[in-house]
Amino acid sequence: MFKHILMSVLLLSSASTWATGQMGESIEFEGKNYYTHGFPPLDSKIPHGRGGCTALWRGYLGSWVIADRQLYLKQVITHLPTAEPNPLFEKLEKSDNHCAGDYQIDLEKIYGHKAPIPATWFTGYLALNDGERLEYVHMGFASTYERNILLHFKNGRLTQKTVTDN
Asked: pTM for the full model?
């Protein structure tokens, strides 16, 4: 009996992990703006609050650029994590996305220079949505687009690009 209850709890919790379509990060690549199908994680040095809606479970919205084969972080928008003031969180005059928040992380205070910041902490794959959305799936990053551009990074350096036509 205990095994059946445990299995039911595990199945239900895993199925609802990304129960809402998630917002992708914005990224500039080869002269075009894209949204990611997934997201590169932030450096552990960068604090953030919680998301303001179910479409942003990671709690922040980043914007990125790839220039000279290097991935750079340009901006992080989030909510203030506590009621206490924090010098790393700058209040935005106008927030374009209430879901993401109304504070910007002061990357210069963390890294000692202005953004963009080389994302040397990131090794892995990043998928970009390209073209029209062919199918919407209300879960995580499961929607299908005309093309996916799969980028592989090692320490923030672009090492490979593959385009898939869907």
From this structure: 0.80
